[in-house]
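Quick start: read one record
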Amino acid sequence: MDPKIVIRSETDVDVDAITDGTVAAFKTLEISNHTEQFIIAALRAARDLSVSLVAEVDGRAIGHIAFSPVTISDGTRNWYGLGPVSVLPAYQRQGVGKALIREGLSRLKAMNAQGCCLVGHPDYYRKFGFTNMPGLVLEGVPQEVFFALSFDGKLRRAASLSMKDSKRMASKRVQPDRASSDTFFAWACPGSNGVRRNGIR
């Protein structure tokens, strides 16, 4: 990552830049339904942007990442959904997205979060520790593109048990919290196969 890039929390003056940058990042992605900027705005309006970070270089916002709360059906608390995440096309493939993700996960841990989940490309998110957790599902999304990262390992063990005893224990389901529900599902399920690529490439 370029040492001049700063990762910081979103402020009110960043809203327009985040919107414009998100539009630009997803503009050419065929899988996108080009509503990511509205999803971020809806999460912000609902006060469900638990972590919202901006990547900045020379005073210009060049990337953004959002984290919002989700609920696990077995009552597990303090889990968050990652996305959308975007980087301006001119700055993609330069480590900006990775820096946003790592800082975001670090901040979640500092908030005593128990874990994070997302819908994304299998080849990209595994490098951050995300895995397909058997028994943990997001309805309407293929298991192979739904990833989770448990910070304390508890959900991993529980999910494994659900697979061994599937006749008695249903899979755990992830549900976005409160007003973030519709916006998270719009983000996670843009097409018939549910695959969501990011705007960072």
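The chain has one domain: 6-188.
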